[in-house]
Design brief:
- By secondary structure, this protein is an all-alpha fold.
- It has one domain.
- The chain is built from 14 helices and two strands; from the N terminus they run αββααααααααααααα.
- A two-stranded antiparallel ribbon has the order 1-2.
- The longest helix has 27 residues.
- The termini are far apart.
Length: 357
Amino acid sequence: MFTLTVLLTSFLLALALTPLSAALGHRLRLVDQSGGRRSHRGIVPRTGGLALFGAFTLTLLIVLLLPDLLPADVAAQWLPPRNDPNEGRRLLALLVGSVFCAVAGLLDDRFRFSALPQYAIQITAGLIAIAGLIFIKHVNNPFAPGLFFGPEGFPWWIVGPLTIFWFMGMMNTVNFLDGLSGLATGVTALLCAILAVHMLWRAEPPQASVAVLPVALLGAALGFLPANFRGRIFMGSSGSYFLGFALAALGIIGGARLATVLLVLGLPALDVAWLIYSRWRRGVSPGQGGRDHLHFRLLDIGLRERTIVLAYWLFCAVFGALTLFLDDRLYKLIALAGLGLVGLGVLVWAGVPRERN
């Protein structure tokens, strides 16, 4: 019941905040004109990330305040118990990092930062997470029971760079994915739903208190999705930075479910790696905008925008669902390898030159 309340609260907040953020975008002239990389019509505000951030943050603040507002016996019965003494610190880091990313993204929407300031923002976001004990310390060994590097996990000289690389990769993946209406928002909703299912029904013991986080983000994404899918508002950098940071953090907070995140975001992440490699070969900056993203190439081939978006959602949902049914770590590794081969095949096929009529 509590989880459903969190979902509904975040959903309604996003639904209410979306038109407000659109009005703010028009007022601040943070809008996208028709033409360029996007195929939308008219003038569309790119401040939707504020609605996503606002709905998620307000929902979590309400959850934090509830124990003090409710009678002790009611709070004990209704609110899920916290099993980790560091959970509060991680939640604070998540909130602080989200605020930082939303504000930095809004400034990027206003001033159009070059690649170097964007990388600085991503590194800073990773450092905020590390300061709040959100870091990658343990990874399961898929070839044998146990963990890489034993119970102590990775040494600290690996933990820092690995965690920052994870956050940079996720933030760039969501940023690159945000090219078609509803694409990044829908994939985010799918990933949050799968993470919530893992935490509530697959984890032993269930992580009910932590599951509030992906559920709140799921509600925010679903509330924002209708307007975003119809192309009435874009999330902008404030949304892509915030979502990338939040998803990277949730993948760690939820018990280092990195394989789950990679299976859902495997195709978008592979597209980022492909872009970086291909642009490096051509002597082009990896952070430069262009129409060489997979979804844009599919659009140029002649596929309809909504067909591409729905195909992405289906692809991510199928591989994400595998994580709910695959318990063996080796099978998950095989699934990841299969995803890589399928994704690579799609990228190669989409990159074949075609004659235009």
